[in-house]
Structure formats: C-alpha cells, structure tokens
C-alpha cells in the first residue's frame, strides 16, 4: 500500500512522534490508531523463532518452532544457499506466527574462543561472517519478514557487556569488526540493525554517532532503523541524536517524555525527531504490509531441512585409518548422556522450544544392523566422576567393534551473559574418553559445543566429529554422518587452539573492570596463528571427507589490473575418491610487499561444490579492489596499494596447493593532501608525482651518501652496513627529510615542492 509518510508525520503530535521511539511492551511497537499506524511484532532468533504465545505476557509459554543449528554450526557449512534456505524457513515460521521482525543474524567476530555467546556467531573471519549473514538476510526478508543484524558493534564478550569499553584502533575496527556487518546491511538491505550494550572507544553503541550515523547511515546508506539490544540504553536523547531510532523494550513513559522535553527546550531539533519517525514508519508499514494472514508451514519439511542442514554443518576433524563411516554390521557402544539427552542449542535469548527433538541413540539403533549397546558414562548434573558409570561404559565398549562417545559442553559451561574461563570439556568426560579408548582402539568422539574445546585426549581416539550445537535434528544428522548416509563436508569457521594461552587475545580478554584493549589488532584467528607461525590444534577451514579432492589447475584472465578493474580466477577441482562429496574451495589473497602491516593472507572467496566420483568442476572467483585493499585511516576508505599479490587456493587455510600472482596498480591517492610527512613511497606509486618524487629522493640519497663519505674512513664494516640500511629505508621517509641542514633544502623551497605536488594531484 502506498502511503505518504511525510504527510502522516505532519499530522502527528509531538507526543505521538516521541511515543514511536520506544516499544509498546517487550516485543511490539506502539500503534497510533487515529492515523492508521499499526503495531508490529518482533521476537528473538537467530536460528529459530522464540516467540511467547502472548507477546504482552512475559510468563506465557514459547510456541514450538524449528530449532536449526546455531550460527557456529551454520557457518561451518560454508554454504550460502543452504543458509538462505534456513533463512527462508525462519521467515515462513515468522509469517505463520504473525511476527514481522526476527532478531538476527548475529554477526559479531569470534575474537576469543571464551566468549559465552560464540555459539550464535558465525566466524573469526569477517568475510565469511559477512557472507553468511548476507544470505541469512536474503532468506528471511525474501518472505516479507525483517531482520535485525546484531550486535552493532564490537560486542565480543559477555563479561561486563553492559558497561565495558572496547578500545580498538580505527583500522582494525573497519577491517575486522565492522566488515562483518557490511554485507548484511549493504547487500542484504537488512530492515533493522540492533546496537550492542557496550561502549566503543569511549562512546556507548546506543549513542555512538560514528557508528550509527557516519558508518551505518551515511557510508553504508542504511535506510532502515536502529534498535537497542534489550535495555541497551544510556542517555535517550543523546542516542536519538546519534542515530538510534527505537528503544526496546518499553520501560515506561519517562524516556518518551525526555524526547518531548528536549524538543520543547530546544535541545533537540524536531526535524531530527521527524527523520527518526520517518525511518520507524518505513519499517513498521513494510512489516505490516507484508503480513500473510492464515499462512502455515510444513513442520515435517522444516525438520527435514534442519536435519539436512545439521549434517552439512558437521566437521570431521579426525578420521584415522578411515574408521568412519561405520558399517551397518558393526556392533557399536553408544556412550554418553548426550546420546539420549542431546545438547542442541545454546542458553539465553536464543533458546528455542523445538517442534521435535532427535536423539542420536535412537537414530543409531534405527540405522545399525549389528548390536547397539548404551552406557550413560557421565552425569548431566555436575562434573563429578562416577566410577560406576565409567565402568559400565568401559564394559560396553570392550564388547563391541566400535565405541562412539557423545561428549561436549553442558549448558552450565557456555551461555549468553557469561564468558567461559577455560577451554576444557568436563573432567568426567575427559576421564571417560581416556578409560574407554584404553580398552577400545576404535573410539569415535562426537562433540556438542558452541565453541572450541581443548582435546588432550585427541591422540587416544581414532575419529572426532565436531557437531557444534546442531539444532533439533542433531541426533539423526550425527547418525547420517557416522554411517555415511551423508558425506561430511563442513569446514571450521574458526581456529581450534591447542591451549588457551596460545590464543590471540589471551593477554587482553576479557579486560579490566572498565575497558578491554584489543591489543592483537588485525591478528584475529588464523591471521594471528600464521603471522606467529603457531601450530593450532585444527586450522581455520579444516574439515575432512570420506572422499578425496585434487586441486588440478588455476588460471587468471589478466596478470595486471588497475584497482578500478576486476580479475577472474578459475580453478579446477576433482573428486579422486569413490564417494560423492562436497568440497569447500577457499581462496586467499597474500600481499607480497606491503608498506603497512598486514596479515600473511586473508580469505577473499569460497565456493562449495558437489562432485561425483572422478568428476571435475571449474570454479570461478571475481576479485575486485576490495580483495586487495586495506582500510587507510588517513583517507578513511579502502585502499589497494600498488604491488604484487599471490592468490592462493585450496581446501583450508593451511592447504593451498594452487597459486597465481597478479600485479595491482592503484589509481587512488592514499592521503588527503601532500604534507611535510607524506612518504616518498606514496608519491612514487602515483604516476603524476612519481617523476618529481624520484628526483627528490635521489637528491636526498646523494646528500646522505656525501655525508657518509665524510666519515667513511672512520667507519668499520658494521657501520657501513648500518649506513646502507638507512639508504634502503629512505623511501619510507617523509618529505621533511629533504629539508634543513641534513636534507639541504630550505623551508621556502620545501614548501614550494609540496605546493607543486599538490597542484599535480589537484589537491
């Protein structure tokens, strides 16, 4: 329906405008009935619909909905279309339950494996996280239901999340933490964005103008609304000025009154409030107009999708002697309380009431033709070692061909609101694995956890299947993979460390009582391990299959491009095994000679391909400026510097057998104006200034050589080498080095040179 929103705003009273800026209750917006402004509903997500039967009654039961794998698992599929399918299903369930906005996806970066909410987040890599989030948004909003990309921004811990100040440098902020949000907001056109509780560089996210206006609205062009996380408000009027539209939930009339009084006193220009109301009405009417009254969905089909998705997300970490897949005739000891009482989702606001729940034990009994024994192994109540339970498990394992232990993190070990303090699974489970594997060499461990765990027992078992928190179909999906009905194709979207001390943020997580310093900078996840040459337990992108893949050929359509152009990389991958399978082809870009600190390489492309035995397929990637760029803080934009880059392709971050090089020519200027501190290398890379810069640098170097000759007789060989190093680094000096007594140029002449350079560049 076409409406004149501006006309509606002119008819609203000041009080009505202010009232729209906060909710009606916990989950709904306020209506203005006299003007035909409806109320719309929102509920928690992001991997399932968490809707209370009565949105106005906090005590009402949550309606059943399909519980899909949480974000940690979904990202491990590396499958854009699968994520979009899940999003579509979520949108359908929202329509069936008369919900207009689902709160998700959650795209914060996994800075530390200790973050209690990592089970909801996609990845340690911003490109992968952004791609997953974008396709989640595509799926949901394609059904006429809005998303709320969260938590904007730099919300990477639960410790003191309401008050912690995240101190992060500008380049890291843009390259790592904001980059993760960019795709869902710009490409996905998410209806809403949810701001985080914490502060970023001294300003609460709810009133951070740099984030909410400069980046989100002006740079990224977001046309929707910004809402608070529930209770993430500091100063209401300051937040509204900064770009915060909607406060959730409703806490009473006081905050609306603050807005009214600010307008009346002149503190707040009413035009700012009008722009806020325009954004609110745009989303409210969009949600209302896209309603599908009477819509229903097929619960069984959604459960089948949940099962297929869970199996696609599971990561085979180890498979010694090809123990997996299991043969149906093998006798199996199914061990662990999780086998009958699965841990399938995380704790907190995303807790779903599933439409059904599959247990692994039941699914294995259904698939197996041989003997299936069961032993509880450990208690879900506490972490005490129960000798009787372990003895029963040992006896069961010794009497079968294979033992499959279901282990992982219980609810008490990870949840929204609290961070973990270690990487261990419960001691009772560690002892169980140790004792069972001692009597049964064919031991498999299936993990249920929302984030990495340490594995001191890894060498004792032959196979490990990482199931993450795989949703309501976790049990049947695990059985599908264990018995080979599904060939595992998941890949880790995060690095598994050997120890906590090895992790990038170890010295700076979770910070002090008032702030946390992001001292690792750009070096998050695999970027850190590669730069430090650290060997993790399992690398980013790692994941095994029941077949094998060969990377055969790589080609590039041009070996040199300007930063205004793109290049196409083509790769051939073959299934060399005897089973149908899927491979995640990963592409990384490696700068060979950068003038700034950069990671060794970064993920810039991926594609999941289905291959029959013996089949080969070509996969193409298009690389544009952003694939080679870093965030230049001087120009506050992305900048791809001139130079040679290697493009590496393979099956994981540490397995990239194919490579090709490309020369990138920058056409951009990496500074706003030439100054005394502009570097020679920056000017040498620009055609308009390169001749003069080269002449100036040569004159300066000649001056240095002349001064060096004066002391040549007194120099030993070590000092000569030092002098040579000074000459080598000359191009990284600023123009001011050519002035004064050392440089030999007068201030007047230096100023004239700088003016000439600016004139050449039109600055």
TrEMBL record:
The keyword Hydrolase applies. Residues 583-653 form the Fibronectin type III-like domain. PROSITE patterns: GLYCOSYL_HYDROL_F3 (PS00775). It comes from the Bacteria. Signal peptide: none annotated. SUPFAM superfamilies: (Trans)glycosidases, Beta-D-glucan exohydrolase, C-terminal domain. Transmembrane segments: none annotated. It holds the Pfam family Glyco_hydro_3_C. GO terms for molecular function: beta-glucosidase activity. One of its GO terms (biological process) is carbohydrate metabolic process. InterPro entries: Cellulose_deg_GH3, Fn3-like, GH, Glyco_hydro_3_AS, Glyco_hydro_3_C, Glyco_hydro_3_C_sf, Glyco_hydro_3_N, Glyco_hydro_3_N_sf. Keywords: Carbohydrate metabolism, Glycosidase, Hydrolase. The keyword Hydrolase applies. Belongs to the glycosyl hydrolase 3 family. This is Beta-glucosidase.
């Amino acid at each position: 329906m076409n409406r004149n929103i501006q006309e509606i705003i002119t008819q609203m009273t000041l009080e009505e405008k202010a009232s729209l800026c906060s909710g009606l209750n916990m989950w709904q917006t306020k209506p203005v009935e006299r003007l035909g402004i409806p109320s719309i509903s929102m509920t928690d997500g992001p991997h399932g619909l968490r809707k209370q039967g009565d949105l106005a009654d906090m005590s009402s039961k949550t309606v059943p909905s399909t519980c899909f794998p949480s974000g940690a698992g979904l990202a491990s599929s590396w499958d854009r279309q699968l994520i979009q399918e899940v999003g579509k299903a979520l949108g359908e369930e929202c329509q069936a339950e008369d919900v207009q906005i689902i709160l998700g996806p959650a795209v914060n970066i996994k800075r530390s494996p200790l973050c209690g909410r990592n089970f909801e987040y996609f990845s340690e890599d911003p490109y992968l996280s952004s791609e997953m989030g974008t396709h989640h948004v595509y799926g949901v909003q394609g059904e006429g239901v809005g998303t709320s990309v969260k938590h904007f921004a730099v919300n990477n811990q639960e410790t003191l999340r309401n008050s912690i100040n995240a101190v992060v440098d500008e380049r890291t902020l843009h390259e790592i933490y904001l980059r993760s949000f960019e795709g869902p907001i710009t490409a996905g056109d998410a209806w809403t964005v949810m701001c985080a509780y914490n502060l970023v560089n001294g300003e609460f996210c709810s009133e951070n103008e740099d984030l909410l206006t400069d980046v989100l609205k002006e740079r990224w062009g977001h046309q929707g609304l910004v809402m608070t996380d529930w209770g993430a408000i500091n100063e209401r009027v300051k937040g509204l000025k900064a770009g915060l539209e909607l406060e959730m939930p409703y806490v009473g009339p006081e905050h609306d009154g603050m807005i009214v009084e600010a307008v009346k006193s002149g503190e707040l220009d009413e035009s700012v409030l009008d722009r806020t109301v325009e954004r609110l009405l745009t989303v409210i009417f969009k949600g209302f107009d896209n309603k599908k009254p009477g819509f229903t969905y097929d619960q069984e089909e959604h459960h089948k999708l949940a099962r297929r998705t869970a199996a696609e997300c599971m990561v085979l970490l180890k498979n010694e002697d090809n123990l997996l897949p299991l043969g149906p005739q093998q006798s199996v000891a199914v061990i662990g309380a999780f086998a009958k009482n699965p841990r399938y989702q995380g704790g907190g606001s995303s807790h779903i009431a599933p439409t059904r729940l599959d247990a692994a034990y039941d699914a294995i009994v259904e698939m197996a033709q041989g003997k299936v024994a069961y032993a509880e192994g450990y208690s879900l109540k506490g972490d005490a070692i129960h000798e009787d339970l372990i003895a029963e498990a040992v006896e069961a394992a010794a009497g079968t061909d294979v033992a499959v232990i279901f282990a992982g993190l219980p609810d008490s070990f990870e949840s929204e609101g609290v961070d973990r303090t270690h990487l261990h699974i419960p001691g009772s489970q560690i002892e169980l694995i140790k004792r069972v594997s001692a009597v049964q060499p064919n031991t498999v461990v299936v993990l249920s956890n929302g984030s990495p765990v340490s594995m001191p027992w890894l060498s004792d078992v032959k196979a490990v299947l990482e199931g993450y928190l795989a949703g309501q179909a976790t049990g049947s999906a695990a059985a599908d993979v264990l018995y080979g009905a599904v060939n595992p194709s998941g890949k880790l979207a995060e690095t598994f460390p050997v120890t906590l001390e090895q992790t990038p943020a170890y010295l700076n997580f979770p910070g002090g009582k008032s702030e946390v310093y992001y001292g690792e900078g750009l070096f998050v996840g695999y970027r850190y391990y590669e730069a430090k040459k650290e060997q993790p337990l399992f690398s980013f992108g790692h994941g095994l299959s029941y077949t094998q893949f060969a990377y055969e050929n790589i080609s590039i359509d041009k070996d040199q491009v300007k930063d205004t152009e793109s290049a196409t990389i083509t790769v051939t991958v073959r299934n060399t095994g005897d089973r149908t399978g899927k491979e995640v082809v990963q592409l990384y870009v490696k700068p060979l000679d950068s003038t700034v600190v950069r990671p060794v390489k970064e993920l810039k492309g991926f594609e999941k391909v289905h291959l029959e035995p013996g089949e080969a397929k070509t996969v193409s990637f298009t690389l544009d400026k952003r694939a080679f760029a870093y965030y230049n803080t001087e120009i506050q934009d992305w900048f791809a510097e001139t130079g040679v880059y290697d493009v590496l392709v393979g099956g994981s971050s540490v397995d990239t057998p194919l490579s090709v090089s490309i020369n990138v020519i920058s056409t951009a200027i990496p500074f706003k104006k030439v100054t005394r501190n502009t570097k020679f290398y920056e000017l040498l890379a620009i055609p308009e200034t390169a001749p003069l810069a080269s002449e100036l640098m040569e004159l300066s170097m000649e001056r240095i050589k002349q001064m060096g000759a004066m002391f040549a007789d007194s120099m030993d060989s070590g000092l000569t080498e030092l002098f040579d190093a000074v000459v080598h680094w000359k191009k990284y000096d600023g123009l001011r080095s050519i002035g004064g007594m050392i440089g030999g140029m007068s201030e007047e002449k230096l100023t004239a040179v700088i003016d000439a350079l600016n004139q050449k560049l039109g600055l």
